[in-house]
Amino acid sequence: MIFERRDFLKLLGGTVGTVSLGSCGRFLVPDRMVEQALRGPGIERQVNTICGLCEGGCGVTVRLVDDLPVGLKGNSRHPLNRGGLCPVGQAGLEVLYAPNRLQGPLRRRPEGSFEATGWEEALTEIAKSLGDLQSSGNGRRAAFLHGEPGQLFDDLARRFMQALGSANVARRRGETVLPYRLAQGIDQVPGFDLANSDLVLSVGLDLFEDGAAPIHAVSAMVGSRDQANRASLIHIGSRLSPSATKAAERLAVAPGTHAAAVLGIAHVLVREGRYDRNFVAKHTFGFEDWTDDRGETRLGFRRLLLEQYYPDRAAQLSGSDPRAIIRIARRLARAERPVVICGGEATSTSNATWTTLAAHALNALLGAFDRPGGVALPSTVPLTPLPPFSAADGAPAQDGTGHSGIFAAPTDSTSFGIDPVEALAGADELDVLFLSGTNPVYDSPAGSDLKKALERIPLVVAFSSFLDETAAAADIVLPVSLFLETWQESTTPEGVAFSVLGVSQPVVSPLFDSRHPGDALLELARRAGGGLATALPWSSYEAYLKERLEGLRTSGQGSVISGSFEESWVHFLEERGWRFLESGDREAFWQGLARKGGWWNPVLARGDWNRMFRTSTGRYEFFSLELERHLEGLGRSAGESEPEPALRRGIESLGLVIEASVDEACLPHFEPPRLAGSGAAADALTLVPFRPMTGRGDIGVASPMLLEMYGYPVLSGWQTWVELAPETAHQLHLDEGDQVTLETEASPYESAFEAVVKIEPGAVAGAAHVPCGLGREGLGGAADGVGDNPVRILARDRDSVSGALATVSTRVRSTLIKKRARGGARPLVGGHG
Amino acid sequence: MTAAGALFALSPSSPLPQPDWLPWRIQQPIAFNHNVHVEELGFECVDCHLYALTSVRATIPNIENCADCHEEAQTESPEEAKLVEYIAAGEKVPWRKIYRVPDHVYFSHRRHASIGAIECEVCHGPIAEQVKPVGRPYWRPTMDNCMECHEESGASNDCVYCHD
Amino acid sequence: MARWGMAIDLDRCTGCGNCMAACHQENNLAAVGPEQTEQSRAFHWIRLVREVSGSDAHATVRYTPTLCVQCDDPPCVKVCPVHATYLSEEGIVGQIYARCIGCRYCMAACPYNAKVFNWYEPEWPGELKKKSNPDVSLRSHGVVEKCTFCHHRVNHAREQARAEDREIRDGEVVPACAESCPAQAIVFGDLDDPESMVSARARSPRAYRPHEDLGTRPKVFYLEEQE
């Protein structure tokens, strides 16, 4: 066990680290911990909690020796990850013990630098500002932007702002829900039942590395199945990611052209009659040509497909192979339970909504809705509803002016929504802004705009564990406890087909003077008094969670996370109309929740088509009537009164290229992606930023291990690389290991960043794939000055329909800075040195 | 150990490393009398060294264990008075460890005392008779000594059983 | 007595890198930093080796988790002048850091490039040392290290089995890489037990051992990808 030399080395190592790494901070081992490590008996415990480093919410089991956390592994019973864990989760302890974590609240001095302050002073100051807003009825001069993974925190933040009289709350999420609203009428990303599917077609999403819950995808498709029953993967994308290499079939397409390939597949399904006729007839709208109220014939999806997207053309539009398109379509048709999932680079473009609509239309053609291994809507988590609170105590329940808040799309907007970061960057008349669990200054294309906007806002409060780029632009920085130090929750990640609520319990007392943002909000409400105090009466975030989660017990639905035997028993009972009764009282239930790590409900309400399709037709809409109304509305406000010209005018206002008829705009179709910068220069490359597995979450890079294995698939560490196809590299006279700058004139702020060339056979020609997550400026510690951030130079472009910021939007040109040293490319991991 | 010397010159409060065997007696902060506790009062080893049978380290009892009896002085002993002071102040007794194995050796009390059913006296000597505090190891935990005993008792001498 | 072995199903492996990270944490590996990484001195005891076939858009890349294969006839043992590396009773090739003089003969002899060398004292910024796994000793500079099949976990399992007066059960010993694998691609166990999961996988028609022709008789089996 821990003997003296080891403990001595601990101390020595820490000291050496401080000396040689300079900026890594002081050497801080609390005495009580040293004492424990030195003299403790070595008693082991395992505690279940939830990883809080990204939005996935995997269950983790913490190994403690004498109450010190010394190891993390996946919770083998957690339904999301079933014992697996990603490299970022594995690095959890390195993040917990990172020397550059914030150790106490910071306050900006008038001249700009930060000084340490106490919670008491910081909260008093914020509460005073809130009290002023409250008493003057100026609540809407406050705003809240967060990226916390849990629904319950979002509820609390919304209630906090509502009590203040503000509608300005937004949560940054992965995928935009708009396409699913247009096609299905739902306000969520539906679940994709990967665990029961036999063939998953992933459009643009690196399914095993990216998306809300990649480890769930691996465990559901491979890990929890025996060899004969594994699900196959088909991947459509421009990059040869590790997921793509593991796919049974891969279709390489040019960036932003996924929709063309997908519609080519749809064409083959329809032409060969291998789609689910029964489902299409009963549950869809707009497949065949149809006649509207005015008696005019409108374009149906079938005719659009057959006329426009024959494989040769689809392949030509997407730069792919027509034979592969036909092969994939037939493979989908042969599969018993195929499902199509869309995300990643396919939804990071100006045509993202139509691409998602095209991919989702395949689900409709395949009849994938409401069947095992298809598209599902996870059951609602039966949380205790929040008690109503009276607005009479001084704060209006709604924004007094009827204004729907800064995060709603402005009235003159052509898109359905507005990116919350862009909204914030453009907002004036804000006095107080809260930011929590999000780092938009660093990771949003509108980050530079936001940074300027933050300077204008008198009081910016950032909750953060590190002095990251966004916190560094705040006035007060409040240190946040990490997931191993506090109570918090995680809710069903986007795209998961069952509902799950993870409960994260503290396994170690906070190392530093930090709190959960929920606790800080509750304390602020108490101090500000008035409507805020009435609306948020809970003594702590733990008490709030306890009250909300009591609903899980009383509902009798779902069960506390359990082993596989119990699980099948739950299924058995539920399928026969029985309820699985949780044993014990309120306290016992809570204890069980915390001990096991959460609650889940795998049971789906089958056959509830009114819940599945909440469009005005009650069907899956290939032809989106809501999109038509929106486009017509745009045309009307531009002065057209007749439907058809109004639709045409609306389409024009989006700047679209429509080939067939105006109806095409309301159907899934291929719209060429808008790419700004470097004109049509022959040597220009399309910049495709991607998030590697090691870059999940914002703070993982505080771990030296993750930085070192950041680019393990391409043997790269501690640097930003750019993946080029061999013919592209050849054309640009670049070799593996060359250092280049990638430049564009598209960004209003910065024009270039640096990267190291990695030649990636299998990447499509003309694309430059660059990982996000490095090039940190404020995190402190090991990550500072490592690599570069491609997001800085992105053109400011949006998805034409949803308004979400596009990241595949920019053309760049490369310039060689330094040729690779002679002697050939060295492998990252050699050993011989 | 040169580096060690340098470090400890910098941070005197850190626990001092000690060689495995010392030719001199280590002075303990209190002249603890095993004989009184074991022979006269009838305590078993594990009554104070709580984890000797169940865990990796036996642990040396400290004020939280001693306070069960010594919250108030039981005798006139000036040594006990020191302990009572420590307890009253809530301060840990800075016992010095005598038995040490290097970092690259895995030694488990449970494996020896419980699973191997080796009596404490085999390694720690006739400690029940000892009236003075433990100041030097009865039996030096060197590799020769370990391997000799392993050979005699038929325990494996495979390297990786003890070196991790 | 057990003969420990491992089987890695490449058909299940998704190349997620969790084995690398889990091993790194379990065995107290330290990041070597950017300068050392630049000189190829970054190391992992298990790593994903990338093999590219083809060079155009239809090229394929394969990731193979690679670790010390624990040969039954290990070339590294034959060249070690100080008996720091040896074949243990249960078939694990041990590396005794305290004996190692850092001559690196074993690294030169190893046909699998499985051994790594600590060029410098590992650096642990700030408090990172504190989370080190107490079961695994920290290596200083100048010694060779490699995958140990997590033999500290084997020792724990053996201790537990003895305490309960029974044999170690199949599946009771799980190395960190196998434990963290979400695809359950890695199986560990006793190759001499015909009932064990690992020997069942080793008998699979898809199974092969790396560089079998060298006569090193590795105890790590790979199961080839299907399709």
Describe the structure.
The complex is a heterotrimer of chains A (833), B (164) and C (227). Chain A is built from 28 helices and 32 strands. Chain A is of the alpha/beta class and 833 residues long. Among the domains of chain A are: 1-35, no CATH class; 106-171 and 392-536, Rossmann fold; 180-294 and 305-377, 3-Layer(aba) Sandwich (Dimethylsulfoxide Reductase, domain 2); 685-818, Barwin-like endoglucanases. In chain A, β10, α9 (242-245) and β11 form a beta-alpha-beta unit. By secondary structure, chain B is an all-alpha fold. Chain B has a domain at 25-60 and 95-162. The longest helix of chain B has 12 residues, at 78-89. Chain C has one domain (4-223): Alpha-Beta Plaits (2-Layer Sandwich), CATH 3.30.70.20. Chain C is 21% helix and 18% strand. Chain C has seven helices and ten strands. Chain C has helices at 18-26, 34-38, 75-79, 105-109, 151-163, 176-180, 197-202; strands at residues 4-9, 47-53, 60-66, 85-87, 93-95, 116-117, 144-145, 186-190, 207-208, 220-223. In chain C, the strands form four sheets. Chain C has a four-stranded mixed sheet. In chain C, strands 2-3 form a two-stranded antiparallel ribbon. In chain C, a hairpin with a 6-residue loop joins β2 (47-53) and β3. The radius of gyration of chain C is 18 Å and the shape is globular. The model of chain C has no long low-confidence stretch (mean pLDDT 92). The chains are: A alpha/beta (833), B mainly alpha (164), C alpha+beta (227). At the A-C interface, α1, β3, α4, α8 and α9 of A face α1, α2, β2, β3 and β6 of C.
Summarize the structure.
The complex is a heterotrimer of chains A (833), B (164) and C (227). With 833 residues, chain A is an alpha/beta fold.
CATH architecture call of the domain at 106-171 and 392-536 in chain A: 3-Layer(aba) Sandwich
Strands in their spatial order, largest beta sheet of chain C? 8-1-10-9
Q: Outline the low-pLDDT stretches of chain A.
A: 1-29, 392-402, 824-833
Instruction: Give the class-level CATH name of the domain at 106-171 and 392-536 in chain A.
Output: Alpha Beta
Strand residues, percent of chain A: 15-25%
**What is the rounded distance between the termini of chain C?**
38 Å
End-to-end separation of chain A in angstroms reads 32 Å
Largest sheet of chain C: 4 strands, mixed
Provide the structure class of chain A.
alpha/beta
Report the average pLDDT across residues of chain A: 88
Helix content of chain C: 10-25%
Alpha-carbon Rg of chain A, integer: 27 Å
What Rg of chain C is obtained from the alpha carbons, in whole angstroms?
A: 18 Å
| CATH topology (level 3) name of chain C | Alpha-Beta Plaits
